[in-house]
Amino acid sequence: MSERSSAVAVGNVVFGDGGFALVGGPCSIESRTQIDASAQAVARAGGAALRGGAYKPRTSPYDFQGLGDEALPLIAQAGKRHGLPIVVEALAEAHVELVAAYADMLQIGARNMQNVPLLRAAARTGRPILLKRGPAATLDELLLAAEYILVEGNPSVVLCERGIRSFDAHTRNVCDLGGALRLRELTHLPVVLDPSHASGRRSLVEPLTLAAAAAGLDGALVEVHPDPSVALSDAAQQIDGAAFVRLAERVRRVRRALATDEVLVA
Ligand code: PEP
Ligand code: MN
Predict the structure, then answer these.
(1) Residue 153, number of CB atoms within 10 A of its CB
(2) Nearest-CA residue for atom 9 of ligand 1
């Protein structure tokens, strides 16, 4: 769990400084009260940042597509109120400027990993970028997608493993923890895990996050909703606030258990 050569600062939080940055928040921002309750839980857990989607890249056009522009002030206010930097996905080039005006970090989603004009536009905002691995992307393709951001002069990229497509349907995707660890050998950029999309099942979110923390990844991105049973997107994989608080405590315990005298545990 050593310090990375390219730590990425987002507000007061640093990805890749030897700590484990636990980012939480709902799949979709649904209302002022919903995002505020999510933020409250993330803050109570000692989480690093609040993440929520305003524009959702849903598989079906008939599913909830997100509140769009009107979600941005809601998450910005919740972040401010609870002292958390915020992370929001820019789904298209047209969103980049507005999202960057509100968010401390821009997410590029899995489906857009190789959307070159979007990568370049997001990079040029100067905001740190959370770049998710495409569901069928190789590690080299992910690293080259990150290069598109770096060559625009933006060095602040965090890579996110969110599961890759395979043949078994019992998990939504296959959580490529080995691939995420291999990335840490290949690049100086911080690497985090999204256990929510990687598994699609709330029962697996905590154990996968603990595995990521034990293995020395730089953080996790967890979907947290005040009442997952009524979530408008990804209901099966979101955990509630109490579960997130417990998860954060267990991450701390895992890190303490594995710490040596030389390692400063957050
Ligand atoms: C999300 O983060 O809610 C999301 C849609 O993730 P992904 O791009 O990994 O599918
Ligand atoms: Mn989601």
Answers:
(1) 9
(2) 110
For residues 220 and 186, is the Cβ–Cβ distance under 8 A?
A: no
Q: Where are the alpha helices (DSSP H) in 52-126?
A: 71-82, 96-102, 116-124
* DSSP assigned state of 256: H
Q: Is 176 helix (H, G, I), strand (E, B) or coil?
A: coil
**Do 86 and 102 form a contact (C-beta atoms < 8 A)?**
yes
Q: Which ligand number lies closest to the CA of residue 134?
A: 1
Distance CA 91, CA 51 (A): 14
Q: How far apart are CA 21 and CA 140, in angstroms?
A: 24
Residue type, 98: L
**Per-residue pLDDT tens for 41-70?**
999 999 999 999 999 999 999 999 999 999
pLDDT single digits (tens) 125-158: 999 999 999 999 999 999 999 999 999 999 999 9
Q: Which of 63, 162, 221, 222 to mutate to test the pocket of ligand 1 (most atoms within 8 A of CB)?
A: 162
Dihedral sign for Cα atoms in the order 242, 70, 84, 134: positive
pTM of the model: 0.96
Tokens coding 166: 């395979």
| Orientation angle between helical segments 32-44 and 71-82, nearest 10 degrees | 30
Best mutation site among 132, 133, 158, 196 for ligand 1 pocket (most ligand atoms within 8 Å of CB): 132
Q: Which residue has the tokens 């950029």?
A: 189
Ligand 1 geometric centre to CA of 200 (Å): 11
Which segments of the chain does DSSP mark as H helices, in order? 32-44, 71-82, 96-102, 116-124, 139-150, 177-186, 195-199, 202-215, 241-258
Q: 48 — phi, psi (to 5°)?
A: -85, -35
